[in-house]
Amino acid sequence: MIPSGISAWRSQLRKTLLERRLEIPANSLQEFRHRIDIYLQRAFPDLVHGVIGFCWPYRNEYDVRHLLAQLRRQGAVTALPVVVAPKAPRQFSEWPPGVTMQKGVLGIPFPVGTAAIQPDTFLIPVVAFDAGGYRLGYGGGYFDRTLALLDKPARKIALGYEMLFVETIHPQPHDIPMDYVITERGVYRRDGDALRFLDEPRGFSSPPCYAAEIAPGYFGETPPENPEKTGS
Length: 232
Fold this sequence. Notes:
4 helices, Rossmann fold, single chain, 8-stranded mixed sheet, alpha/beta, about 25% helix
């Protein structure tokens, strides 16, 4: 049980940072996404060979879908979380573009009729992250329950913005630290009990060339009347 004082503090921090995130201008979000995309590609080239669990973007979160479209073309498998029951771990189901989608908790869509699969790498959004590599989410505890019950080890990469850093979220026993955190500044790795910054900002002369290749409806927001699974 989280002490009431810490719980209230975290709730207020969550509210404050969500409000700040919603105020980020669209052009800044695009620049942040561009930078994070490149850091992900540079730091984790093996993503193309594995199963990637990710989250549908929500309330100005970093949108990894464009990068994943490219990684799928190179061989990656992608999966989205499905909330199967209140306070239960999430199940991840394969997400190929064009698959039928339904709206779930908070109106966030999830794939219907695809196979359950365990990711090798989890790309996890944050409301806040701290110096110990812990993340603050939306308060439901779904990710902590999911990560605590994995059948096999998996890499945990948190994704967010520098403005979401706090010195500590006052982690509780159920909180699971991330292995890495990536922001528009660069890559952090958890060494021992603390994050260490690995990358330095540098030029971005080779932007990903995928935006024009993604047709309307590619992500499944408006599936056709008789949707069929399509590769990417």
